Amino acid sequence: MNIPNNWLIRNASAIMTGLSGSEARIAGPDIRVTDGRIAAIGRLEALPGEALIDARDCVVYPAWVNTHHHLFQSLLKGEPQGLNQSLTAWLAATPYRFRAAFDEHSFRLAVRIGLIELARSGCATVADHHYLYYPGMPFDGAAILFEEADALGLRFVLCRGGATQTRQLEADLPQALRPEKLDDYLADIERLTAQYHDPASDARRRIVVAPTTTLHSTTAEELCETARLARRLGLRLHSHLSETVDYLDAARAKFGMTPVQFCAEQEWLGPDVWFAHLVKLLPEEIRLLGSSGSGIAHCPQSNGRLGSGIADLPALEAAGVRVSIGVDGAASNEAADMLSETHAAWLLQRARKGEQAKPRYAGGTFEGGADAASIEDVLRWGTAGGAQVLGLDALGTLQVGQAADLAIYGLDDPRYFGLHDPAIGPIACGGRASVKALLVGGQRVVVDDRLPGLDLAALGREANAAVLQLQRRAGVRR
Ligand SMILES: [Zn+2]
Fold first, then answer.
1. How far does residue 212's CA lie from ligand 1's centre (Å)?
2. Do residues 97 and 53 make contact, with C-beta atoms less than 8 angstroms apart?
3. Quick one: 350 exposed, middle or buried, by C-beta within 10 A (0-12, 13-18, 19+)?
4. Taking every pair of C-alpha atoms in the chain, what is the biggest distance, in angstroms?
5. Is 64-386 in CATH node 3.20.20.140?
6. Domain Amidohydrolase-related, which positions (predicted)?
7. At residue 171, does pLDDT exceed 90?
8. What value does the mean pLDDT take over residues 15-31?
């Protein structure tokens, strides 16, 4: 089969670049893709051998870069015991209770569902914080994750999670998973790096060192060892941090300091580090994160679903923190796609600022928070920002020379009819705009809103059967 890699995308209604300020939009209306890279943007004529994509009435964005996920949770959506629980109780009720129930088949199916959901929102790069590890595991989750991403044509960053200590909330569970030994964890990072890691700026496969939580998964000394191994191997560091107030309480009780200070002491800050959440931070923690150039994976839907709060992105960005967007696992976000996530980010940043508004007689200086985040900001966080925290600098923006990772959205649903500015539609209107094309390195992954060869109805039936099996294995009585 001859798969074209050279494209001329013609007559786009709007093109958003992922850049800021006056560079956030570009007139186009045509984009040339040659050998997987953006070769030209402007008014262009077709060259011999180029395949055409008619983008009339469509909007072109850089493909999304999702910087925090737990794909195995794609079969744990809306789990009733955890549905109305805040973070710690939810962890015990849903992911930790179910994770030992996964076998190779259900794990692979969950990964596939999550990746397909993301591709259908225009996402090309997925960083998965994968922490389903225990000694003597009967399947290689890393291999399955890379295989499934490869099969769909997506870029995949494996954030190798895991723990060397058992949290109390796991020890009390009937299906507790045992932690790994530090040496085994570090040896597996070396194995994965040799097998998969590509340091190139447009890599399709990356490895990241990512103990599940900074405060609870290892001892302080071990956490420091993970940072040193990462830097020796040229890998980035990722973990959860300051998702709820419990992090502040735990860090004070265990270490007598703030969570960010604790990370700083274990060499876990810097431009090669990004954290999911960062919802509950003290002002001095924001300064530390910013001055070190660390990054955030902002997960507004999960933070909303768990009632954790809303990260203060304008303050973080002003301090120097690199901002990106992650969907987080679908067990705490029943819409784990990048269009839903960025729509939520846009609304919630504004609502957050509005919550701080006070009457002028009480010292207030503004009425509301509509200036907290523009569509261009949210798009930049979800594309260029994500590429930056992952160190994949050839991705995330639509510019000549960059990798041709782009999403072409058709605004053919009534929710988009009547828009004065079609460019904002995919983010501002919510829902899922149809994906006319998703290109990843010039390869067309989505064709007219379909993934070629995929039977979505059959996938849904498999998911239903797998949910029943997981419930049986986790001891759910029906
Ligand atoms: Zn997470």
1. 8
2. no
3. middle
4. 71
5. yes
6. 59-421
7. no
8. 97
Q: Do the domains spanning 7-61+398-447 and 64-386 agree at the CATH topology level?
A: no
Instruction: Give the residue extent of every domain in the chain.
Output: 7-61+398-447, 64-386
> What pLDDT band is residue 168 in, cutting at 50, 70 and 90?
low
The CB density around residue 196, as the number of other CB atoms within 10 Å, is: 19
Element (H, E) at 143: helix 141-152
pLDDT band for position 137 (cuts 50, 70, 90): confident
From the CA of 195, how far away is ligand 1's center (Å)?
25
Nearest-angstrom CA–CA distance, 213 and 111:
21
- Encoded tokens for 268: 């876990």
How many A from CA of 155 to the centre of ligand 1? 19
60 C-alpha to center of ligand 1: Å? 29
Residues around the ion ligand 1 (C-beta < 5 A): 276, 328
Q: What is the mean pLDDT of residues 295-322?
A: 98
H-helix segments, 76-123? 80-83, 87-93, 95-98, 104-119
Rounded to the nearest angstrom, the distance between the alpha carbon of 237 and the centre of ligand 1 is: 14
The CATH architecture to which 7-61+398-447 belongs is Roll (2.30)
Cα 172 to averaged position of ligand 1 atoms, centre (Å): 22
Q: What is the pTM of this model?
A: 0.97
> 70 C-alpha to center of ligand 1: Å?
6
* Span from the CA of 330 to the centroid of ligand 1 (angstroms): 10
Q: Which tokens hold the place of 269?
A: 């800050």
